[in-house]
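Hey all, quick one. A colleague (J.T.) asked me to put the glycine job into the tracker so the inputs and the structure tokens live in one place instead of scattered across chat threads. No bug as far as I know, just bookkeeping. Sequence used:
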Amino acid sequence: MKLLVIGSGGREHAIAKKFTESSLVETVYCAKGNIGMKKDGIQLVDIAENDHQALIHFAKSEKIAWTFIGPEIALFEGLVDAFDKVGLKVFGPNKKAADLECSKQFAKDLMKKYAIPTAAYEIFEDYHAALAYVEEQGVPIVIKADGLAAGKGVVVAMTLMEATNALSEMLLKGKFAAGKPKVVIEEYLEGEEFSLFALVNGTKYYYTGVAQDHKRAYDGDKGPNTGGMGAYSPVPQVSDALIQEVLETVIKPTVNAMVAEARPFKGVIYAGLMMTKKGLRVIEFNARFGDPETQVILNQLDSDLAQVIDDILNGKDPVIKLHTDRYTLGVVVAAEGYPEKTITDIPLPQMNIAGSGCTIYHAGMKQGKSCLISDGGRIFFVAAQGSTLKEAQDKAYHYLTNNPIAHTFYRFDIGEQAIQFTK
Ligand code: AMP
Ligand code: GLY
């Protein structure tokens, strides 16, 4: 069969590459994809994510068996609804179901209604009322813009000044708001953060792994929040019992709640979680795979992903096996200045990974005059496997140390806390 992947980052590279490894699959197309994907035999399709009619035309004329959607923006813009309407098979939630990610208010209200554990919260549209609430609650406190903000609409305010500034930016200046600005103000949680992924169709859900991302730009979790600077899977701090607890107390009630609310979910549920002293809490839901978590999760998947998705779309229970004898760890290489003042057009050398034990997932890059050049903040991701997390980490950093690229940077401490934990 022929498959289409929507998106253009490292996440989509990992998904499309995994599909190319399936004996069921003849061709994998990616719209728009990125130039680095070509070396893995992925066919690039020059159609924008928001050009629904052109994508539908392509899927019909190429007889695409089904389409897999990577990024949230396409879900938010209703690409699944457009495909559903014309009877094209697609793996991803429709707009109403994607509210689980796209509207923080919807997600919080759903969790409250169905007793899914999450931080206490209040919702505000009025700046003065929000400020009064923050003053009453005190700091630290967390302020989140309602709506999609590419992971950047969250301020963990340690001081009243930071909280006031965040409220002013979000409610008075409308930063991150598509319509009327709104914020969710949340109790500050402390503990071990991790992400759990499940493939979902209605009330059925299938566990696909846990990962830990590193969201801050610099070592020691310093600097601004980014889309993610590195990840590893599985997470030694997360026991099998904790995974079961997440499935029973978070994923199961959530998929049932979505059905009860007439918003049945089909696609990936990515639960952002924190294990606090008071117990497990959901930080957020996403309605898609994470980037860069996917690049490590799919390396741990010991099943044919195309077969798995095909089974789910056909109402069958898929067989999902995860490698239990190894870890995958990966590091994002970003352009200088990312995420605030990203420089672009950095010349990129030929990457030679032969013998390094690493896999490269390409993201922000394009063809320049004489070589590939950077095109975005996160340029590529170097992933490695090992029988221990340390071995995987050593391999990834060995490659990075020996292949420096001017005007780029990466974190030196991906997985470090977990390695210390296992000592
Ligand atoms: P989100 O976009 O909701 O995942 O938030 C981005 C990051 O902010 C998370 O990965 C957490 O590290 C942090 N965060 C979000 N909500 C809270 C909270 N209630 N307490 C503490 N940290 C939080
Ligand atoms: N890595 C965080 C995300 O994909 O939202």
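Adding what we noticed when we looked at it: The pocket of glycine (ligand 2) is lined by residues 151, 213, 227-228, 286, 290-291, 293 (CB under 6 Å). The longest helix spans residues 240-260.
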